[in-house]
Amino acid sequence: MTDDKGSQTPPRSVLVTGASTFLGGYLVARLAADPAIERVVAVDSRVPTKNLMRRMGRADFLRLDIRRPAIAKAIASYDVDTVVHAAPSIMDSVEHSAAIKELNVVGTMQVCAACQRSPSVKRLVLRSSARVYGAGPSDPGFFSEGTPARKEPRRGYGRDLIDMEGYARGLSRRRQDIGVSILRFQSILGPRIRTRMSAYLSMPVVPTAFGYQPRLQFLHEEDALAALAHATLNPRPGTFNVAGDGIVTLSQSVHRAGHVKLPVPATLISPLVSVLQNGRLPGMRSEHTSYLSYGRVLDTTRMRSELGFEPRYTSMETLDDFIARGKNEPVVSADAWRSLEQRAVATATRLQ
């Protein structure tokens, strides 16, 4: 790599945090399979599963805590030029806690500080999320990367993301030779990855906010991995929304899964989700219920024009693949839904 932020020189030595997670681990596997990359270093405080470790091939695994100064030693020892920070806990499949906040915020601070001190580092890719925009009744039809949140998250995962992105931008200002790419992923779905949204849509009876029809987008797990790999191999500094084409309403999502909507006041969604999941899915905070009331849609123009990335799956195709290959059991079959729709149309026609 050169000192030019816009350099297209591919990485030589890559370090990936969060190697025990789905995105971090499988990204390591993809990069390790690329002969153009001399060295791939996988970092996590937890040991990946045997299957994931086997997929990582020639990558070196280091068991260390990114909140500690040891991350700087690892970067220096392996002469790392590209850091992919995939460790932040933002999949939201567990309740946010002080420990998770420390991992997200303090961990990102330490990673950015280590990059700043290392003369070899020329590139940082940060996995972020569209949750930085929040969700509310005054939201625009499409959030572009420069659109400020109408209701900025004040706590939880959303707040963590804002702080993490702040550290990454601070690194870019202090070390202007380091190109920083921030990828804001839309809600990820797939047959292998577990997120709060995937658990929510897998419920046979799905509590929804009465009187609201949120507009949603989805990002396939394979496209999320491909976007991270693309940003690693094709340096493009900046902030980028990443989502599949198209819009899917929450009602469509529930019906296509063959499940049943249970419209309730928004304040009751969280306790009902916890009860219906027998405690397996944590109750939802206000930021989650706002999202399920108002939805959130991203403008992905920069993803294509500047990042140069094109997802393989649309939002609807992502949903359908999640339903087809996941572990969802429909309460109402597709044939039954079609029959009900035909009867409803026939009845409406007679009444006209």
UniProtKB/TrEMBL annotation:
- Which SUPFAM superfamilies does the record cross-reference, listed alphabetically? NAD(P)-binding Rossmann-fold domains
Q: Which domain of life is it from?
A: Bacteria
Output the InterPro entries linked to this UniProt entry: Epimerase_deHydtase, Lipid_A_modif_metabolic_enz, NAD(P)-bd_dom_sf
Q: Record's Pfam families?
A: Epimerase (PF01370)
Domain named NAD-dependent epimerase/dehydratase is located at 14-243
Q: Where are the transmembrane segments?
A: none
Its protein name is NAD-dependent dehydratase
